[in-house]
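Issue 218. Parser rejects a valid record. Input:
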Amino acid sequence: MAKGSQWVRWGFLGVVVPLATGLAAWQGWAWWSWATGPVAQGEPTTDQTVQIQIPPGTSGQEIGQDLEAAGLIRSALAWKLWSRWQARQAPGQGFQAGTYALSPTSSMADIAEKIWTGQVIQTSFTIPEGWNRRQMATYFEQQGFFPASEFLAVTEQIPRQRYPWLPEGIPHLEGFLFPDTYQIPADGLTATAVRDAMLKQFEAIALPLYQPNATELSLLDWVTLSSIVEKEAVIPDERGVIAGVFTNRLRQNIPLGADPTVEYGLGITQTPEQPLTWAQVGTPSPYNTYINPGLPPTPIASPGRASLVATLTPEATDYLFFVARYDGTHVFSRTLDEHEAAKNAIRETFNN
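Output the parser choked on:
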């Protein structure tokens, strides 16, 4: 009996100890689930998004305290524990500085993942093909990014140490600011950052197209001619022909006679209602390709990839002239007489 009682007693204690340990574990897990879960419930809304700025050098513990104070996580202690565990899993890595848009409906793990991987707030902008530096500068100012004067100033600085492929002696970066859609961290949106992003895109997309041994054009001449093609070609199917016409004229030392170069030199834009006048076409300028044979001293806009390719592989043609119909298409001619007749026909149609 005594022996049996002892067995029961120890047997009972043997059950109690695991139960106590299990209860503690369950309570710990319950706390962890609560501490790391979303502060708010339901779908995120604009009002629930909170912007948090993390300066460089901020410790994980400080981040947790800021997140708890902002009502984005329940427990800075849980954040601290998670941070230590994450640091062991990925030594040498850490939370990324920047500005973040975070929601209290996200779990602590989701918020931590955003900051760990640097998913900062991005500002998006698009530069169309054929824009010049001044158009870009005006756009950035209108978007509230920075003054137009700042962009013009930094694009007159030629960072050849970082981009040694840039031609020597150019007065500005016209033509080398690649037209594309960009995303830049909102708190790093400066004129210099935008300029460098566009140069890097030119380096990544445009520069590999250029093979010096496969063309008679220098890098500067290639981009310059491509910028003229970009401004003249409205219909994609005509791009190669236009490039072919300009290539023929250059080889025969015939002035290009490109209106966009005159407009660029004078800082104006013609319209069907207000075309270039004879006085404007006759105004001396390094960019006046009616007066000066060859290419102007710099590009006149940012050419897109299609124009850059077309200039390297112009369509074989015997056309030497073309005139715009004002609907985006052109009439191409082989002789000056054909060209003059085409211009007169278009003028009469427009006037009627």
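Fixed in the parser; the record now loads. The two ends are 123 Å apart (CA to CA).
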